[in-house]
Specification:
The complex is a heterodimer of chains A (115) and B (112). Chain A has 115 residues and is an all-beta fold. Helices cover 0% and strands 50% of the residues of chain A. Classes of the chains: A mainly beta (115), B mainly beta (112).
């Protein structure tokens, strides 16, 4: 069964460093998403991406964040200068179409720890 | 803005007993509602969803949920808990776009 994969499963970094979180969406999907969950808090939407463009972003997704689909399979989230408060579980998701009729399939997450 | 409330971060249920997880939402438009489950070291998996039509929605693994507009609720139930139901459960709401707004989740523990 096709699934979304994410690497690494756990990333530890120093404050101020850049990190890139990687995702491989389901191969025929066209819509891609990042969410995050800070420990003890809700899963929060960060950004959605379609046709090589950001289609929607939340207020959390500021200039330190960027997303890219560098090739036909990967979808990445870059955090340029990490802060302590960026420590969270980051989930990637993909869907075959737009809107709630199209299920978003989630990866297992990358746990980011900023020291 | 849409939001979801799930009370009680940890829920303990005896094997064979009813599982009831409560979800209340707020939305400025008729919502689309979802329940996701996360097993250890896995991604969030869709259990069921309500978009339009029948308010009682059946999902995988014997779960169901009922949309009650008057109560702004979408509670998840399963008549008889199995050990394999131990997982974290998330309620989510979407309005007209791709953005899902999640609740904090309920960690379900099944007691033998």
């Amino acid at each position: 069964e096709p699934e979304v994969t994410q690497t690494p499963s756990h990333q530890v970094t120093q404050m101020g460093q850049e990190v890139i979180l990687r995702c491989v969406p389901i191969s025929n999907h066209l819509y891609f998403y990042w969410y995050r969950q800070i420990l003890g808090q809700k899963v929060e939407f960060l950004v959605s991406f379609y046709n090589n463009e950001i289609s929607e972003k939340s207020e959390i997704f500021d200039d330190q964040f960027s997303v890219e689909r560098p090739d036909g399979s990967n979808f990445t989230l870059k955090i340029r200068s990490t802060k302590l408060e960026d420590s969270a579980m980051y989930f990637c998701a993909s869907s075959g179409g737009q809107g709630p009729y199209n299920e978003q399939f989630f990866g297992p997450g990358t746990r980011l720890t900023v020291l | 803005a849409q939001s979801v409330t799930q009370l009680g971060s940890h829920v303990s249920v005896s094997e064979g007993a009813l599982v009831l997880l409560r979800c209340n939402y707020s939305s400025s438009v008729p919502p689309y509602l979802f329940w996701y489950v996360q097993y250890p070291n896995q991604g969030l998996q869709l259990l069921l969803k309500y978009t339009t039509g029948a308010t009682l929605v059946k999902g995988i693994n014997g779960f169901e949920a009922e949309f009650k507009k008057s109560e702004t609720s979408f509670h998840l139930t399963k008549p008889s808990a199995h050990m394999s139901d131990a997982a974290e459960y998330f309620c989510a709401v979407s309005e007209r776009n791709n953005r899902l707004a999640f609740g904090k989740g309920n960690q379900v523990v099944v007691i033998p």
